[in-house]
Amino acid sequence: MLVSGGGTNLQAIIDAWKAGLIPHGEVAVVISNKKDAYALERARSNGIEALTLTRKKCGGQEGFENALAAALEERHIDLIVLAGFLSILSGAFTSRYPRRILNIHPALIPSFCGEGFYGLKVHEAALEKGVKVTGATVHFVNEIPDGGEILLQKAVRVYEGDTPEKLQKRVMRQAEWKLLPRAVEMVSKQIAEE
Ligand code: GRF
Fold this sequence. Notes:
Number of strands: 7
Bound molecules: 5-O-phosphono-beta-D-ribofuranosylamine
Largest sheet: 4 strands, mixed
Helix content: 40-55%
CATH architecture: 3-Layer(aba) Sandwich
CATH topology: Rossmann fold
CATH superfamily: Formyl transferase, N-terminal domain
């Protein structure tokens, strides 16, 4: 699991895994590009290895990606899940893991996605546009930001007077935290049966 922030999607995966809903997978390691990400705390308090890798410490993007790849290889990781991960992964990195990197995006791709659409900005754009329905998308990651094959989507209603924060919470609760564990089990099962 690659994280950068609060880790509520990580928590949803941990809870699903502990409830036996991800029988074909396990959370082997949580890696953050932010040392103070609360997601790392969630990992540690669930007995999961928690690492921090920063571009700065690794000497730039290439060093970061090489260190990340080494950490994943060392642990024989089969599936990489971006859960609120806000660092760029180059095409050189993502092409090493075709259909093995998942991302959860807090909108119905192709709406409100791509360069600069992350976190609250996604919901601000949705409210700005005045959409009546938004949602979340789980997709495979390739070199195009939010451009990979779509796996799962779930729609969420937008209500009069919604703030970006209120909408974000509803999308997380009703869509993200449901879709990501389901997608992780789906792909883990496919990998196990290869
Ligand atoms: C949230 O904006 C979520 O919609 C997106 O990443 C951000 C942080 O998620 N997936 P998390 O709480 O760190 O999982």
